[in-house]
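TA notes, week 10

Several of you asked for a full example with nothing omitted. So below is the full record: C-alpha cells for the whole chain, then the designed sequence directly under it. When grading your own attempts, check the secondary structure regions first.
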C-alpha cells in the first residue's frame, strides 16, 4: 500500500516527458504493488509455507515467461511497422512481387512462433499439474493438528477439536498454529458460501453450506499472517478478515492451555457487576462465556475475548474504546452485522467493559 502511494506521488511530481515513462514503470510494477511488494502480511509473494512456496514459484514462472513473450512480440511488432514503412515508400506504387524465398521465410517464422506458443502453454500446464499434485500430496501425511473453521456472515468461528472432550475450545477470527507442523483445516459454512484465504500460506478454499472441505497448510516461519474471505458473501464481506498467529510449539501450547480454561471469575466489584449486566441482557442469547450460564454459539465465543488482538473479524483493535463503541452500536461500525445495538447506562457500560476486558 505505502509503496503504491509512494510511486504515485513520485509520478505526479514528474515533468510531462517523465510521465509516460513513470506510467510504463507503474504498469510493469503494478502486479507487484497489488500483491504488496513481497514483504506483506497478506501476500502471495511472501510465501511462508511449503504450499505457498509452490504457488509463488508457479506465479513467478508464468510472470517471467509471459513478460519475455510480451516484450519479444512488441519488439517484432515495432520492427514490422518500421520495415513496412521502408518497404513501401510510395503508398500508390504497387508492392514488390513476393519471391518464393521470402514467402518460405515467413512461413517458417509463423511455424516457429506457433510451435513456441504450444511449447510454452504445455510447460505451463505440466508445471501447474505438478504444483497441484504437490499441494494435495502432502495432505496424506495426516499428522499434526486439526482445526475446524466455520464461516458466518461475517466472522470466523474457530474450534479446536480434541479426543479429550474437556480440551475442546472455541474462539473467533484469530487462529493460533504451531510453526513447522501440518495443520488440517475442516471448513464449514452455515449461511452462504465463504472462502478461506491466507495468501502467505496457501491458496483459497471455499466453505460451502452442507459440505465439509479440507485444506492443509503449514507455516515454516513464525509470524502473523492476514487472511480474508475470498468469496463475496454479502454486505460486510470486506470486513470478514482473520489473523493466523504462527508460533513456536511451546508458545502455542501455552496459548492452547489458557484457551481451554473456563473464564476467570470477575475479580473486582465493577467486573462482578459487569458480569451481572452481561448475564441479565440480550448478550446471553448469542454469546457463550464458558463457566457462566451464557452458552449460545450464535456469535463469537467470548470466554477469552481479552486475549484477542482484534474484534469483529479483524475490523477493530481490541481496546476499551472500540469495545465500547462496538457493544453500544456495532451497526455504526459494521452495518448489517448480526449484533443489535445495546443501550446501557454509563455505569453499567463501564462495568460491562471491566468485565469483558477481564476475560483474558
Ligand atoms: C442477536 C445476537 C447478538 C446479541 C444479542 C449480542 N451479540 Fe455480540 N455479536 C454477535 C455477532 C453475530 C457478532 C459477530 C459480528 C461480526 O463480527 O460480524 C458479535 C460480536 C461481538 C463482539 C466481538 C467479538 C469478537 O471476538 O469479534 C463482542 C465483544 C460482543 N459481540 C459483545 C456483546 C455484548 C456485550 C452483548 C450484550 C450487551 C452482545 N454482544 C449481544 C451477536 C450478538
Ligand atoms: Cu465471507
Amino acid at each position: 500500500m505505502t509503496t503504491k502511494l509512494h510511486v504515485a506521488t513520485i509520478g505526479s511530481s514528474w515533468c510531462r516527458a517523465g510521465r509516460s515513462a513513470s506510467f510504463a514503470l507503474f504498469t510493469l510494477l503494478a502486479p507487484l504493488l497489488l500483491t504488496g511488494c513481497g514483504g506483506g502480511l497478506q501476500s502471495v509473494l511472501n510465501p511462508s509455507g511449503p504450499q505457498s512456496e509452490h504457488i509463488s514459484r508457479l506465479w513467478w514462472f508464468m510472470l517471467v515467461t509471459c513478460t519475455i513473450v510480451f516484450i519479444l512480440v512488441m519488439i517484432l511488432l515495432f520492427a514490422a511497422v518500421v520495415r513496412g514503412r521502408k518497404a513501401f515508400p510510395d503508398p500508390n506504387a504497387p508492392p514488390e512481387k513476393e519471391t518464393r524465398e521470402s514467402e518460405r521465410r515467413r512461413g517458417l517464422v509463423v511455424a516457429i512462433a506457433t510451435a513456441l506458443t504450444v511449447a510454452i502453454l504445455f510447460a505451463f500446464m505440466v508445471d501447474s499439474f505438478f504444483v497441484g499434485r504437490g499441494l494435495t500430496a502432502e495432505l496424506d501425511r495426516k499428522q499434526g493438528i486439526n482445526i475446524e473453521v466455520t464461516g458466518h456472515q461475517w466472522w470466523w468461528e474457530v474450534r479446536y477439536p480434541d479426543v479429550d472432550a474437556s480440551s475442546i475450545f472455541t474462539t473467533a477470527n484469530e487462529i493460533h498454529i504451531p510453526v513447522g507442523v501440518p495443520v488440517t483445516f475442516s471448513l464449514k459454512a452455515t449461511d452462504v458460501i465463504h472462502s478461506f484465504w491466507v495468501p502467505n500460506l496457501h491458496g483459497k478454499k471455499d466453505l460451502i453450506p452442507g459440505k465439509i472441505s479440507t485444506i492443509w497448510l503449514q507455516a515454516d516461519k513464525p509470524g502473523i499472517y492476514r487472511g480474508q474471505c475470498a468469496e463475496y458473501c454479502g454486505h460486510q464481506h470486506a470486513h470478514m478478515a482473520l489473523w493466523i498467529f504462527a508460533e513456536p510449539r511451546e508458545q502455542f501450547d501455552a496459548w492452547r492451555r489458557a484457551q481451554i480454561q473456563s473464564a476467570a471469575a470477575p475479580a473486582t466489584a465493577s467486573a462482578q457487576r459487569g458480569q451481572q449486566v452481561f448475564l441479565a441482557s440480550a448478550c446471553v442469547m448469542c454469546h457463550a462465556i464458558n463457566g457462566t450460564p451464557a452458552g449460545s454459539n450464535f456469535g463469537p465465543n467470548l470466554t477469552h475475548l481479552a486475549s484477542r488482538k482484534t474484534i469483529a473479524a479483524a475490523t477493530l483493535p481490541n481496546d476499551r474504546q472500540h469495545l465500547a463503541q462496538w457493544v453500544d452500536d456495532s451497526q455504526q461500525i459494521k452495518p448489517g452485522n448480526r449484533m443489535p445495538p445495546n443501550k446501557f447506562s454509563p455505569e453499567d457500560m463501564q462495568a460491562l467493559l471491566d468485565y469483558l476486558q477481564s476475560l483474558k
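The pocket of copper (II) ion (ligand 2) is lined by residues 151, 154, 194, 229, 233, 237, 240 (CB under 6 Å). Use that as a sanity check on your answer.
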